[in-house]
Amino acid sequence: MNPVEDSIHEVENENINQRGTESRTLRSLSADRLLEKLSRPELATLYTDLKAYGERGLKEPMPSLSFRLYRQFSDRGERKAYEEAYFDRRGRLAAVAMLALDTARPDALQALEEILWDVCGEYTWCLPAHLGTGEVNQVNGNIDLFAAETVHMLAEIVNIYAERLDRLVIERIRSEAERRIFTPLYREQRKFHWQTADHNWSAVCGGCCGMAALLLLEDESTLQESISHTVSCMNAFLSGYGEDGGCAEGIGYWVYGFGYFTYYAEMLREYSKGELDLLTGSKITAIAAFPLRVHLSGGTYVNYSDSAEQEEIPSGLLSLLASRFGLQVDLPLHIPLLTDDPCHRWAHLLRNVMWSDPAVYGDEGASGQAERGFIFQNLGWMIAKGSFDSPDTKHANGAPLHVAISIKGGHNDEPHNHNDLGQFIIHCGGENILCDPGAGLYTQAYFAPGREQLLHISSSGHNVPLIEGQEQSSGRQAQAHVLEAKLAEDGGELNTTLDLTSAYSGAVSLARYTRQFHWKKASGGSRNGAELRLIDRFQWKSRVVSLADRSSSVDNSDSHAEFSSVVERWMSRVQPEVVKSGNLRWQGEHGTVHMTYDGNQWQVLTEAIDTVDHDNVPVTFYRTSLSWTGAIDETDVRTERPNSLETVCEVRFIIEPKMGETEVSMRE
Asked: pTM of this prediction?
């Protein structure tokens, strides 16, 4: 039995008896305390942003969640227009709720009541994209991420303004919370898919509903049920993590899932006067360290799965975790604005105000990186980090120029999965020069059968090969087997070998495919560079003959011979240039990546791919391909030459400070 679960009944009885049937008030949600926090100098920019957004909410009518907008998803698979209006409404509510902390603003309090009343009248708090075809039977009693976030937001606002809001507004909020959330979830005990999910849904849905229950529920038995239920959800969420603390969904979903896990854990700890604490144990400590381990430099992260390179880590969340677990934060303090988050999440905003602590933040230029690299043994991610040591390779502000690589293993059935086994990132000076495309625009097709055809999800959008015209396959059976993973203590050297054969089940002539990485950063003296050597070995079931051999043969019509091919691909936002045959260069903002390869064996081609990112902003990727083609001859085994059953692609990526800023040049 979980020790937290053992303590629930005893603690719950004690707290219920003390509180009676009155509304629960947590000291952390005191309006006076929040107003005091909001007046701190480091929050000045945040307050300016809140005020601008809030003033618009005071003057303009709330955007309508019309029937036509609601129907767009079921009719055409489009979700953006409805969600923009939905999240604008949540943003206005959050901003006006902060402005109303000032008792000299009765207009803000009146507007707050109107917005709360309006939100209570929404047809559903769920997003249409989470409701199937959106019929009534799919709406009633349904709880998705955003219905859960909404009830949590309303509960905390009621708690903060318990003495100032009109009683009718408070009673309506309680009534809607009961009808939409508490009755189906705790009283009727309906089953929802997220209750046992091993990803962010269990933490967000369970945690938000659980926090609302702590603040709004009045009867002992239902409140006890809610705590037991939420702890069960949190255990399901944690089951998706290994002991290494790695998040397969990526850094953005770490913020989402573990953020709400932490928010509930802290409220439960405060509610139980420290008796119930979910933020304990080595696994939780490892999960808390995840964002610092995948931070490369300059606020740029490893962004596998549906995450962005530049991710906002809520300053309140990171401050609390740094304090609780003694984490060294190698980032300058940056408090995200409400408008930085397209979803305008209340939970992040409020805790950024309550918990942000400049004292836990470091200066990347002064303290260096908190982690010099890390191997996520369970997750199958490998990261090595370092910096160029020479004084002439620093940023203009004096900060050292950081360099890093990341390699991805895992399998192709992960949450928010991309078919990307063997993917790697090369980073220099705050920029992922060879990059991962991250998340694409969320549409109906993005989560439907056939999604692996989309660029952001397909292996065609990653730094992995096309083999015999076959992309990587989806499914748990497509797995990267880690044959070697060794990282030097200082992060200066990493050796990794992956067997990726199972990812290419459609390549019928492929017997085995391994990808080997050797990373080494130059250290000391005047040398300022790093090298990633990549060796791909393709072993075939039959003898492979080169195109030149085939074209010179007497009989080109041999019916027993069939063609096989390999195309290596590298993705970047930087357009590469050919220096000379066998030498390609990507010029980043602060770093240069040279790729050397055998120009006699491999042909190079670069194509521009125009697409949109997760926020529907146009973006261009450059896909650089190295192509090799051979023929498989199943009959001429007598003349088999050494290594004729193997094709090898070996390339060197040499990473140096940007040419023109220093006198360093590529070393052959």
From this structure: 0.89
